[in-house]
Amino acid sequence: MWQSVNQTIKKADLLVIVLDARFIQETMNEEITAKINSRYKPYIFAVTKSDLAGKIDKITIPRPYVLVSVKERTGKKSLRERILIEGEKKYGKYHDIKVGVLGYPNVGKSSVINLLKGKHSASTSSLSGHTKREQPIRADRRILLLDTPGVIPYGEKDNTKHVVIGTKDFASVKHPEVALEGIMEKYPGAIEREFGVEPGENHSETIERMALKKNLLLKGGVPDVVRLSRMVIMRIQSGKLRL
Ligand SMILES: Nc1nc2c(ncn2[C@@H]2O[C@H](COP(=O)(O)OP(=O)(O)OP(=O)(O)O)[C@@H](O)[C@H]2O)c(=O)[nH]1
Ligand SMILES: [Mg+2]
What we know:
Elements: H1 2-11, E1 14-20, H2 30-38, E2 43-48, E3 65-67, H3 76-91, E4 97-103, H4 109-117, E5 136-138, E6 143-146, H5 159-164, H6 176-186, H7 190-195, H8 203-213, H9 225-237
Parallel strand pairs: 1-2, 1-4, 2-3, 4-6
Antiparallel strand pairs: 5-6
Helix pairs in contact: 6-9, 8-9
The structure holds guanosine-5'-triphosphate (GTP) and magnesium ion.
């Protein structure tokens, strides 16, 4: 993965770093910006999934940035203009610019490429790790886009964070009930409120109550906490449940 990212940073004239509007700080990757800086290449932040975010505190967004929603198809013109402006600053007007698109797994990189292209060219999925290698896609006469597989900072092992932001997608989380406990610890009250259950003695008891309330039962009436937890994680990742 990093090899592909390194190659793309080397080949590209400019980089678009994709951030999730709901989790701007969490989807920043200092290793990526350091690598880009060491090659003196310009970059822009595309803050995407803005349709899923509530009010965004603009002060916290690194610059230069463009707000995008691929779902609502907003920000396309601004992003294109910004690419050309930053490109021209560095390379002059008539350069055919190669743009590498980078970011965390599942953050929405291929979708941003499709938005710029105007039709579905890069393959996307709610499952993480979907893009395996970069493929150049021409957005228009002046912009060539390079998709990349998502990467996380070396050694980052924050499971709760990775589940919340979708780096680890709902289908591949190994122990969703453990992950959900971590989320409930980090975002107190959010899940309990959504399900309208009284908190139990501990998170695991609360999760049992939620499974019972949803009538998710195993043989013998045992609450199916695994299924319930995977469902909650899916709702968080798709933006249906806000933390
Ligand atoms: N609501 C909403 N969902 C989005 C938006 N952009 C992308 N998604 C969803 O986010 C998921 C991941 O999108 P991709 O474009 O495949 O993400 P990626 O960064 O290329 O993922 P990998 O290639 O797996 O690293 C998909 O389910 C998309 O439909 C957006 O602006 N709004
Ligand atoms: Mg992709």
